[in-house]
Amino acid sequence: MGRQRWWLLLAVAAAAAVVVGAGAQETCSDMVPAAPRRGAWMSLASFGGGGGDGRTLSTAAFQAAVASIERRRAPGGALLYVPPGVWLTGPFNLTSHMTLFLARGAVIRATQYTSSWPLIEPLPSYGRGRELPGGRYMSLIHGNGLQDVVITGDNGTIDGQGSAWWDMWKKGTLPFTRPHLLELMNSSDVVVSNVVFQDSPFWNIHPVYCSNVVIRNVTVLAPHDSPNTDGIDPDSSSNVCIEDCYISTGDDLIAIKSGWDEYGMAYGRPSSHITIRRITGSSPFAGFAVGSETSGGVEHVLAEHLNFFSSGFGIHIKTNTGRGGFIRNVTVSDVTLDSVRYSLRIAGDVGGHPDDRYDRNALPVVDGLTIKNVQGQNIREAGSIKGIATSAFSRICLSNVKLNGGAAVRPWKCEAVSGAALDVQPSPCTELTSTSGMSFCTNSL
User: Which first-to-last residue range defines the signal peptide (predicted)?
Assistant: First the structure.
């Protein structure tokens, strides 16, 4: 890890210490009950893997350890302890009623040999790999149909060694869609905490078709020029809590998704009841995003106490003709921006399509978005809100949004949108100054 990243981690640790000293803060992490006391404890070193020498492939050791947990069926499940050292591995699956614990100084490092990465079926709500037709590479740490899974530790590291994958993407030689660092599918009662995710080949943390998920006190790092290294992407999932994280990657820090065009509409599982709090970070793209894959719908989202710097967008809510679905009842509050190009973009023309079979008449509904208490400095452009001519975005509320720049901040741009704006600087566009959207705006504050 480079010197700059160490400084970032030190800054995060210092901020965490301040938070602890300041006393308890509002949290949603109790949506997942505390894991029961595990009835068994085992060390990865007992299963081989070269003792964490960083050279010996440990895939078989991880697989054997998980298989042992499944066989033992200890009361309350089992904890797999990953000792200090570098554990080089290919992808492996987790199991239910399991804690994966990374000790301080423990590194789970992904092999860069693509032959060690199995191919799996595309997600049904995407219909194909997100980048290329056909299957996709399995995530480094994977699970399907699990219950009561904890990934935690003493700030150990999960290292994707993504540079080889990024090079293939840039050169156009990628044969299939790149893998995530962590993907859990169709799972419930999941907790991810106190772990560093680093240099993922693709998206970092991807809970999909999941419920009751808590992700807190994690650090996610990747270079700003690393392609599509989203930080945390809850996808067609419900009851999700994301809190107290530092994220600096090459794409959106947090992006809520729910499937892609006709496949997402057919699967029909929204992302709903998602709470995001106290997130700090930097990205060439967005700090907080919804979309653009929203064909199953996104609703009942609260994102608050966000701090983004040196980024492309502070808030980016995005969809497209052919997506269908909906984005509604989303509140973003108490946001601090520094050196961000656009404070806000809500757009109906973002994102491609999986194939030519999408329904061009499937128009998304964007309704009931509240953006309030935003303070920005060194902002270049206030932002834009552009709906779709035949499906205007409605009930968009901006309140107490104050944006400043070294030079004059470029004005708002609006099109096919209705709503209201209260105490917004620079002055809002005329589409948000009518009285028609005022009642929603005042009621939502």
Answer: 1-24
Residue 13: the pLDDT is 43
Structure tokens at 144: 């399907």
CB 37 within 8 A of CB 247: no
Q: Quick one: CA torsion of 221, 227, 232, 233, rounded to 10 degrees?
A: 180
- CA quadruple 128, 129, 134, 137: dihedral positive or negative? negative
- Whether residue 348 sits in one domain with residue 220: no
In a domain, 15, yes or no: no
- Active-site residues: which are they? 251
Reading the block at residue 212, the tokens are 């009751």
Residue 188 to residue 148: CA distance in whole angstroms: 7
pLDDT tops 90 at residue 76: yes
Within a domain: residue 425?
yes
For residues 368 and 374, what is the distance between their CA atoms, to the nearest angstrom?
18
- pLDDT value at residue 4: 43
State how many domains the chain has. Answer: 2
With respect to residue 340, please indicate whether it lies within any of the assigned structural domains.
yes
Token duo for residue 288:
């907080």
Whether residue 307 is found in the same domain as residue 238: no
pTM, 2 dp = 0.94
Using CA atoms, how far apart are residues 252 and 287, in angstroms rounded to an integer?
6
**DSSP-derived 3-state class of residue 299:** strand
Helices (H), 256-321: 261-267
Residues 34-72: b if buried by 16+ CB within 10 A, e if exposed: ebeebebebebbebebbebeeeebbbebbbbbbebbeee
Q: What is the 3-state secondary structure (H, E, C) of 129-154?
A: CCCCCCCEECCCEEEECCEEEEEEEC
Instruction: Tell me the residue range of the domain where 231 lies.
Output: 42-251
What is the tens place of the pLDDT at every residue in 383-403?
Answer: 999 999 999 999 999 999 999
Q: How confident is the model at residue 16 (pLDDT cuts 50, 70, 90)?
A: very low
